[in-house]
Amino acid sequence: MPEKIHKLKWMRKVGQSVANILKRLKEEIRPDISGKHLEKLAIELMKKEEVCSSSLGYKDSFPSAICVSVNSELTHGIPNEKKFQEGDLVSFDVACYVKNEKGITYHADAALTIIVGEGDEKKKNLLSVTKNSLHYVIQKIIPNKTTVQDIGEMLEKYIRTRGYHPIKEYGGHGIGEKLHQEPFIPNYKIPNKGGIIKSGMFICIEPLVQINDAKIEISKDKWTVVSKNNHLNAHFEHTIYINDEEAEIITNFE
Q1: Chain segment 39-67, per-residue pLDDT in tens
Q2: Cis peptide bond prior to 191, omega within 30° of 0
Q3: Which domain holds residue 17?
């Protein structure tokens, strides 16, 4: 089997597993459960899917199998026992890997934000804009022509023209044998940010969006990224395969 087809087979497998896990976690969200509850469920689902967490032990220190971030927490949240409340914004980021018969790892990564119970229109609109910005850009990618700069510019324009603010410190990335690979894919335009999105690539596009253009900081746990002044955030992500004609989502949890 050609190497390209072999890799695609394994990436599709782990991508589908990540999608299945996110679907189930999304169904589980309700008031009075905790991020720790979601993590325990995710671990059970990973065993069932025969995949492993890419997050647990990341950089020799991340302590959890998934990331769970609530309200002003933007990303890399560590699941805890605090119960969700009606109207909370909860983001969960699931990254998993499989190993082939030669021991080579293949990773997939995806994230979504959901409202616990009923939310107000402000929260619903934030989620809608963030999610739609991701799908808008995916549909606009032209293999072997679109650049990293193009993606950042399209994301920023889509988000800002709707009154929201893209996070500049974090963004998407290449993926495959490692969880995070080149290129870094920003959520805003960086002039002269080169790199053509070529057929055969696997990338993650990852809009992280704020209601207000607030500064961010790392919390005392050294992982959780939070918006100062308790501003709300949303986060969506897909792993995408660039085929010869278009960008194909391989973590489709919708």
Answers
A1: 999 999 999 999 999 999 998 899 999 99
A2: no
A3: 3-249
